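S.,

Sequence below, as promised.
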Amino acid sequence: MNLENITAGVPLKEAKKALILLHGRGAGSNDILSIARHLKVEDFALVAPQAENRTWYPYSFLALIEENEPFLSNSLETISKIVTGLEENGITKENIYFLGFSQGACLALDYTTRNAARYGGVVAFTGGLIGDQVYKDHYKGDFANTPVFIGTSDPDFHVPVERVNDTEVFLQSMGALVTKKIYPDMGHTISQDEVDLANELVFTKK
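The prediction came back faster than expected:
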């Protein structure tokens, strides 16, 4: 994978930190990259892959996992290749960050939990672990106090709060420092408060 084709921000060869941004269904790389202007990531390489046909997997994240295959596995593999590429450029896992909205948030949470390690941080704007239930045997590793922020609306048409709550508990059991915030009737969007919390909790200077 040629990361140069999907990067913005600080050039990869110069960056010490990287943020992988995952867009929602029907959106694209430029949509999710626009959020970076509001984040404290001035010294980050920004990596924003584009999903084929603007969707990471065809059905709801709550569908049976096999219904979303092979698309889900292919999307997870795309992220894995990006992480490998970043490491080959000298950026260690603890300096790799993930951010996604909606379908992209679900993908960011699922990838990092399947490959739990000490990452820089994870920001999930409206998302949860993928599947008709949380399949605990799909996940392994130790987040080792990786900061995770999950924000969502109650209700949300696509992401039920119950799955967000289950995701929070499970990530905590794997060593993540999870902050969850539920916004009454926010709608399927990203709020300024969520951006502020992401900056405060995840993108703080270390």
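The two ends are 30 Å apart (CA to CA).

Coffee later?
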